[in-house]
Design brief:
The chain is of the alpha+beta class. It has helices spanning 2-25, 34-53, 77-91; strands spanning 63-69, 74-75, 93-104, 107-116, 121-132, 135-143, 148-149. It is 39% helix and 36% strand.
Length: 150
């Protein structure tokens, strides 16, 4: 029951952020060209691969210079790289499961489940990223509570 409430709340937050941005720009960002949408999708896949593997070598090509990571209020690609490397050093995720993905214009929302090398350790949450022309501009992480043992 708590999990269902959390998921509903996270999706509500995603919808609220997306609608606020749409209102700010005067219309929904759904009008992206198919080429731009594909660049954004490819960039999102690259970012998720970095989260999954800890390999940050491809991030320079998909992160905007003024990128903001709201999960820590850090700016720039180097701060994101450090965050990913530290996450892998501390948690040592064995695998990452994508439970659900949503895309609304510039925004990608990925419901992620990280399972640690000790398979009883699990971190679950929503990774939300805003892209412009294939470059990540902003990122948020909404954790689903504290890391837990299965």
């Amino acid at each position: 029951m708590n999990k269902l409430l959390w998921i509903s709340a996270a999706l509500l937050v995603f919808s609220a952020v997306a609608s606020c941005v749409s209102e700010y720009k005067g219309s929904s960002a759904v009008r992206l060209s198919s080429a731009t949408a594909e660049r954004n999708k490819s960039a999102n896949e690259t970012l998720l691969k970095a989260f999954q593997t800890g390999d940050v070598s491809a991030l320079d090509g998909i992160i905007a210079p003024d990128f903001v990571n709201h999960a820590g209020e850090r700016v720039g690609v180097d701060s994101l790289k450090v965050g990913i490397v530290r996450f892998h050093a501390r948690f040592k995720p064995d695998r990452m499961e994508i439970k659900r993905q949503l895309m609304d214009g510039e925004y990608f929302s990925d419901w992620i489940r990280y399972v640690g090398s000790d398979s009883s350790m699990v971190i679950e949450g929503i990774e939300m990223t805003r892209y412009t022309n294939g470059k990540a501009m902003e990122h948020w992480f909404f954790p689903g509570g504290t890391p837990r043992r299965r």
